[in-house]
Specification:
Layout (H helix, E strand, L loop, with lengths): L1 E2 L2 H21 L6 E7 L3 H17 L2 E7 L5 H13 L5 E4 L9 H7 L11 H8 L8 H12 L8 E5 L6 H9 L8 E5 L6 H5 L4 E4 L16 E5 L3 E4 L7 E4 L4 H4 L3 E4 L6 H17 L6
Parallel strand pairs: 1-11, 2-3, 2-4, 5-6, 5-7, 7-8, 8-11
Antiparallel strand pairs: 9-10
Helix pairs in contact: 1-10, 6-10
Bound molecules: NADP nicotinamide-adenine-dinucleotide phosphate (NAP).
């Protein structure tokens, strides 16, 4: 079994982006500028956004954080999105999800200018990705592809099973893994909560991508000997032995599954860290106008 070490791979990618930013700026390019909108005081969202802003500082991006109270109206948020769309200094921006229940996430996502949609959630970017056109690929799928590439994992002709069909992970992941390019060319099965015989389907997987949000759901009996196992899950579970009062658990029972797998991602220290790299890469592309001229 080999560990797909998100900490090491993401550090490597960040240092590569940092170098590219230095080169870009030294040849007259503007420092890439990422803005983030945070609504409310959700603990996990605060942590994710803080980590994104810290990463921007590390690699030489400009960053701006716009905070809004939980009572902010949809109209107020849309006005903020419009202002970032029109701000020529901002190359890309994200609206941290989840949003309070009274605000439609779809409406807000669709209001973001696709050329600044570095989270890759706008229907235009999703559609372009499906058609194989240049697009911002959303951060988590991007991070998973990059892990497969950097570990030199062969994908052509493999059976790939994805657990979960969410807009941000399962669905884009399944589309990307069947593309006629590397990483891709897999025979993909996408599964969800209504899937029958989930365990038997997973047992056919050469590559198993797990994103359902149920801690330690996948056990060794789901796994074909030698499978590549990518655990996207991140759930906080109460743990009195931790200073924070909680532990982070993946969707895969790591201790049980690892001995049967050829490659596996740990949680924490796996896909989560790679996600930020996707966002930073997209922002650099936005600053260089690589996708939208
Ligand atoms: P989500 O929107 O809640 O989607 C979960 C998916 O799993 C749904 O498609 C659901 O099916 C399916 N599902 C639920 N229970 C199932 C079961 N028993 N058997 C088969 N499928 C089942 O979740 P998400 O946003 O994709 O996130 C999934 C996990 O990844 C969460 O733990 C989240 O925190 C984590 N995550 C991590 C990162 C990262 O950077 N590492 C990024 C995003 C999310 P239905 O469609 O039928 O409901």
């Amino acid at each position: 079994m080999q560990l797909l070490d998100g900490k090491a791979i993401s550090a490597q990618i960040k240092s590569e982006i940092k170098l590219e930013v230095e080169n870009w700026v030294s040849t007259g390019g503007k420092k890439p500028h990422l803005a983030a909108i945070l609504v409310g005081q959700d603990g996990a969202s605060e942590t994710y956004v803080a980590s994104k802003i810290r990463s921007c500082e590390e690699i030489g991006f400009t960053s701006t954080l716009l905070r809004f109270g939980a009572e902010t109206t949809e109209a107020e948020l849309l006005a903020a999105v419009d202002s970032l769309n029109k701000n020529p200094d901002v190359d890309g921006f994200i609206v941290q999800l989840p949003l309070p229940k009274h605000i439609s996430e779809n409406t807000v996502m669709e209001a973001v200018d696709p050329s600044k949609d570095v989270d890759g959630f706008h229907p235009i970017n999703v559609g372009r990705m499906c058609k194989g056109l240049p697009a911002y690929i959303s951060a988590t799928p991007f991070g998973i592809l990059e892990m497969l590439i950097r570990a030199g994992i062969e994908t052509a002709g493999k059976n790939c099973v994805v657990i979960g069909r969410s807009q941000i992970v399962g669905l884009p992941m399944s589309i990307l893994m069947q593309r006629n390019e590397y990483p891709g060319n897999c025979t993909v099965t996408i599964t969800h909560s209504k899937t029958k015989n989930l365990k038997e389907i997973c047992q056919t997987a050469d590559i198993l991508i797990v994103a359902l949000g149920r801690p330690e759901f996948v056990t060794a009996d789901y796994i074909k000997e030698g499978a590549v196992v990518i655990d996207v899950g991140i759930t906080r579970v109460e743990d009195a032995t931790k200073k924070s009062g909680f532990a982070i658990k993946g969707d895969v029972n790591f201790a049980d599954v690892a001995p049967k797998s050829s490659f596996i991602t740990p949680v924490p220290g796996g896909v989560g860290l790679m996600t930020i790299c996707g966002l930073l890469t997209n922002t650099l592309k936005a600053a260089r106008k690589e996708i939208y001229k």
